[in-house]
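Researcher: Here's a chain I'd like modeled. Treat it as a single chain, no partners, no ligands.
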Amino acid sequence: MACPSPRSRPGVGTLGAVSPGWGAGSMPRVCDSEGAVVVDGVLITDELVRRVERELAHDGRALAAAMRALDASTSAAAEPRAGGVVVHTGPGLFVNRAIGMGVAADADADDVDFVVDFFDERRMPAEIELCPYADDRLRARASERGFAVAWFRTAFTRAIESPELLGDARDGGFTQFDKVDTRATFVQWAAVHRAIASDAPAAPLDHALEARNSVPGAHDFLARRDGVTVGVCSVIVHDGVATFGGMGVLPDQRARGVQADCVAFRLALARDLGADLALVTATPGSASARNVERAGFVPRYTSACLRRPR
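Model: Modeled as a single isolated chain. C-alpha cells:
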C-alpha cells in the first residue's frame, strides 16, 4: 500500500513538470503505524505541517496589516486564499508571495490564477511558496501558467524543553541582548538591517521594519558584544509557536558564534513566553541551516518558491 501524504490526498507532494524529482512524493519515506509520514527518518505529521504553514502565513499577514496600520496609503496587502494567504509588502521587501495555500484547505487552478492576477495588478512577478504536502493541483496549474522554481527554503522545528539561558563566553566576550523598545534602539536595529540588506530600498525597508517591530507578539533585539552591536534577531510568539526570524550578523562579526547565541537566547525567551514549538526557516545547506541544526532543530520539509515572470 502506498504511503499517503499528511493530507491523505493522492498526488500530493510532487512538483512534476515544474521541477522533476522535487517534493515529498520523490523522497525516501515510509509510514508509521498511524499513517504519519517518515522522510529520511524524520516524522512529519498532518498536524505539524498545518501548524507550520499556518504560522508562516500568519506572520506574512500580520506584517502586511501592521504596514497598513502605520500608513493607510501603503500598497501592502494580504488576501486569504485556499487556507493560506497571498501577501504583498512591496518591491525588494520581506514577503511578496503566496504562503500556506492548499495545506489546510483544498486548492485548485483558480487559486493559482488568483495569485497571478494579484501580483499582475501590482506589477510584480507572481510567487507561490509551495509546501510539498500542498494540494497537487497548485503544482499542476503553476506549471501550466509558466511558473518555475526560484529558490527553496526548509522548515526546521524543535520542541522547547527548558533550554538553559545563555551564559558561555565566545571569543573573549559575552553576547548581550537589548530589546528594541525605544526610538534609539529601533534606529540602531534598523541600521543593522540596512547594512545587511544593502540592496533593499532604504525608505520602504525602514517602513517595513517599523511595521515588523509593531506586530503583536513580536520581540526584536540588538545583539551586542563588549558594548558593540554585532547583529540583530527577532521572534514572534503566536498560538504556542515561536517563529524565529530577522536574524542578521554584521559581516566582520560572522563565524564567531553570534548566531548560535541568538538561537539560544530566543529559545529561552520562547519558553518563558509559553511557546511549546520553535520554528525557523533557512536555505537548505546554508550556514544558518547548519547553525539551527546544531541547536537541536530538525529539518521537517523543504518548500519550493515558484516564480512566474511578468
